[in-house]
Amino acid sequence: MNREQAKSIIVLPADHAAWLKERKFGIGASDAGAMLGLSKWKSNEALWEEKTGLRTAEDISGKPYVQYGHDAEPHLRALFALDHPELTVTYESPFKIIRNGDHPFIFCTPDGELTDAECRRGGLEIKTTEIMSPGQWAQWKGRIPDQYYAQVIWQMIATGWEFVWLKAQIKWHDRDGTLRLDTREYDNFRVSAAILAENTAKYGTVEDALTAYNTGKPGASAYSKAVMAAAERWRK
Prior knowledge:
With 236 residues, the protein is an alpha+beta fold. 39% of the residues lie in helices and 22% in strands. Strand 1 (2-5) and strand 2 form a beta hairpin. Helix 6 packs across helix 7.
């Protein structure tokens, strides 16, 4: 089932198998980190091989940490809604895919969709992670890991959202084995989304929008060319 919503293309696969099949057509937000070489789980070469049919993607749905994140997501989404009555939180389907209307190979599967008091549309990204070494804390010190930043930016490009919140539950064990939990929220993406949306409307292309966001003016840049060239190769 497909439908047009603003400039996005909404796809609602019937089940998990159909969702996996639909994901083969393009680059999803969760692929963005690997595409840019930022992912610690998958290389851009492995991603390319998966998208071109040279390799079958590993099914990680049964792994304990993935199942934990799946089971925790609705509770964290409900907690976010309770903590933010100023936002309307909606969630349609675990299989919903939103594609960019001009570049359908750019897509995401949202953990939640938000609307603020001024009717601006945004998104909610939910993460669960366990810290296994001291070095991992550096990725969360006043920031989020690079692969997650790439993911939320890709979501905004796919959807036209004006802002994104990221809610993360971080757990770790003290030296004595005591389990600790820390739930954090990051709203660092409103300005980025607004600038990207404004630049895309102003300059007409995602590449110009990315360059203008990074350098202050549109045009070709090594960064935007690399991102768009890689995406175009995988799209074909």
